Predict the 3D structure of the following.
Amino acid sequence: MAITNATDQTFNTETQSGVVLVDFWAPWCGPCKMIAPVLEELDAEMGDKVKIVKLDVDDNQETAAKYGVMSIPTLLVFKDGEVVDKVIGFQPKEALAGRLQNHL
């Protein structure tokens, strides 16, 4: 699967079923750029088990506000539409993979 870019309009559809990792990010954010290749590797390794979605907080402020995102990157893990985990800041791939495994 490829990483999906969500918007305020598509967010609920993208996160309503299965395990979904959402990366709240912005183009000007240094740690967001650092975590992008980690997410791409996770996407390649976890395949259909986890869907990865990116949401640009500058362009989609409504969704970021709804979930109380104050600093980026913030990663939220959804399971069937409900938030089950939250990670703020850069994390190594092994740490993120472990947290995702807990929800599969």
Q: What stands out?
A: The longest helix spans residues 30-46.
